Amino acid sequence: MTHPVIVRNIDRPAPEVVSGLAAAGVATIHEAAGRTGLMGPAIRPIQDGVRIGGSAVTALCPPGDNMMLHAAVEVTQPGDVLVVATMSQSTDGMLGDLLATSLHHRGCIGVVIDAGVRDVAELRAMEFPVWSAAIHAQGTVKASPGSVNIPVVCAGIDVEPGDVVVADDDGVVVVPRSRTTDVLYAANDRLAKEADTRRRLEDGELGLDFYGLRDRLEALGVRWVDSADDI
């Protein structure tokens, strides 16, 4: 991208696919996607016990400048997640309760931002979910151009408009729009297997046995002894 641009229209996955991925949660989706798409651990929720999943609307901003977030509000649709990246590292509070109010009115279900957020108490009271790299009261300006709905890199992960973003207490994972159906199928299969594993654990079986870990440990030279005297 050689010049600033605001893309009004993007392709989004089917709502039932998005909701299915959201229900599976970050950890399951990450595994089902081949352990890909997980943002770095610096991106943390400002709230507890919230899980969302939606189509990504992306914003690329100069550090310390939130003008493009205001531009992104206009193209946001119900069920979207706004994903914000900056052109260089920033921890300034680029999102606060006023922008969140505008996004909420448009139907945006949350924000993932590789920068700072402020007005945290108000955001929590609004029940507007945010995952951010920092909480910082430092204000921003509205002076420099950026872009909306272009590919960005957020917390080390490539995000394209229309990708599915799932976020919960474990962090944030991104599923490319082209892979959403396959990843949902793999996630549902994984959830079914986990349900069976949970049942077996609750019945008293040991993971050492049904994962076949005893043989693996023995092959690695690990010995069982009755006491330290037998070492």
Textual characterization of the structure:
With 231 residues, the chain is α/β, with parallel strands linked by helices. The chain has two domains: 164 residues, Glucose Oxidase, domain 1; 44 residues, no CATH class. Helices cover 33% and strands 23% of the residues. It has eight helices and eleven strands. The strands form two sheets. Strands 1, 2, 3, 4, 5, 6, 7, 10 and 11 form a nine-stranded mixed β-sheet that branches. Strands 8-9 form a two-stranded antiparallel sheet. A hairpin with a 2-residue loop joins strand 10 and strand 11. The longest helix is centred in the C-terminal third of the chain and has 23 residues. The chain is elongated.
Q: Notable features of this structure?
A:
single chain; 231 residues; Glucose Oxidase, domain 1; 2 domains; 9-stranded mixed sheet
What's the short story on this structure?
The protein is α/β, with parallel strands linked by helices. The chain contains 8 helices and 11 strands.
For the secondary structure, the number of strands is 11
Q: Whole-Å distance between the termini?
A: 64 Å
Tell me the number of helical segments per DSSP (H or I, 4 or more residues long): 8
> What is the CATH architecture assignment of the largest domain?
3-Layer(bba) Sandwich
Mean pLDDT: 97
> What count of domains describes the coordinates?
2
Output the structural class.
alpha/beta
Query: What is the element string, with H for helices and E for strands?
Result: HHEEHEEHEHEEEEEEHHH
Per the CATH scheme, the topology name of the largest domain is: Glucose Oxidase, domain 1
Query: Residue share in helices?
Result: 25-40%
- The CATH class assignment of the largest domain is Alpha Beta
